[in-house]
Amino acid sequence: MKKAFATKPNLLCAWFDHLVAGEEAVPFVQQSHLEELPRIESLQDRIRLAAGVLALTHRRVAPAYATVAAAANADSAIATWWQQERHRRMQDVRTIACLVLGDHDPPRPAEELYAELYALSEPHVYLVLTEELGWSAEQYTDWFVRAALAAMTAPSNHPPHQGAPS
Questions:
Q1: CA angle 90, 26, 18 (to 5 degrees)
Q2: Which of 29, 36, 46, 84 has its CA 20 to 30 A from that of 53?
């Protein structure tokens, strides 16, 4: 098997990419589940659809995150790829947040909202809730809907950045 992928890092990356792509074999943000988002009227219902897709993806991918993160600590080539993968995940969060928000303006600076959604959608959080605490996928989805709805509708707790004093 190693000959087909040339190196162990290539094999690990291909395995991980396959898990993310799932049965559709396309990047997360291009999966057909998400095509419906712009047609759904309610912000909460758009979040619920995205949360359901997220839970399905995490069920496949979340256990691999620990493996890949550990491998990134041991191999510089994997570490470089992993950093790119994390950046891609943030781009996916931004893209999906924009689809979910639709024509709603975020109640706070967009980058602050994206950072909060990135943290909420972290695969490790899914593992903690489902594996460690025994939540079902439905409980995780319900929790994510509440948390993401709060994030997408609550104003910022941080004062606007004033810049350096003159």
A1: 85
A2: 84
